[in-house]
């Protein structure tokens, strides 16, 4: 490959990476906003719901999104009941798919808090 073509290819990869990183940061920020707007923090950070420590290691990214959307369905799929006795059962989140995916990205960024 001629050097000129290689430079253009490297430049294109750099531009694509920068765009991806910018979108990822935007999604994380949107997820943080949605997390608080929807009241998730009111339970999970104030003692009304369990701490989220370990949630991103417990669920792969797709399952985490499905869990946020409908926790009961994921529990049934796995043949389990909610393990957090003493807390209210997490309800279905009334949010758009974009918000739910952003919340999952935010939780992954936090490293499971």
Q: Uncertain runs with pLDDT below 50, 5 residues or more?
A: none
**CATH fold name, please?**
Cytochrome Bc1 Complex, Chain D, domain 2
Tally of domains: 1
- Average predicted local confidence, pLDDT: 77
Q: Could you give me the name of the CATH homologous superfamily?
A: Cytochrome c-like domain
First-residue to last-residue Cα separation = 46 Å
Q: Label the structural class.
A: mainly alpha
How would you characterize the overall build of this protein?
There is one protein chain. With 113 residues, the protein is mainly alpha-helical. It has a single domain (26-110), classed as Cytochrome c-like domain (Cytochrome Bc1 Complex, Chain D, domain 2). It contains six helices and no strands. It is elongated, with a radius of gyration of 18 Å. The mean pLDDT is 77.
Write the layout of secondary structure elements.
Blueprint: H1 3-37, H2 40-44, H3 55-58, H4 61-69, H5 71-77, H6 97-110
Give a concise summary.
It contains six helices and no strands. It has 113 residues and is mostly helical. The chain has one domain: Cytochrome c-like domain (Cytochrome Bc1 Complex, Chain D, domain 2, Orthogonal Bundle), CATH 1.10.760.
Characteristics:
113 residues, mainly alpha, Cytochrome Bc1 Complex, Chain D, domain 2, 0% strand, elongated
């Amino acid at each position: 490959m001629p050097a000129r073509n290689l430079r253009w290819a490297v430049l294109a990869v750099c531009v694509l990476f920068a765009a991806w990183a910018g979108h990822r940061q935007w999604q994380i920020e949107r997820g943080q906003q949605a997390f608080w707007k929807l009241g998730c923090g009111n339970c999970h950070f104030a003692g009304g719901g369990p701490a989220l420590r370990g949630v991103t290691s417990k669920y792969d990214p797709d399952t985490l999104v499905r869990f946020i959307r409908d926790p009961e369905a994921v529990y049934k799929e796995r043949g389990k009941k909610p393990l957090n006795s003493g807390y209210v059962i997490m309800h279905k989140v009334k949010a758009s798919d974009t918000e739910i995916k952003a919340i999952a990205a935010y939780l992954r960024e936090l490293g499971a808090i």
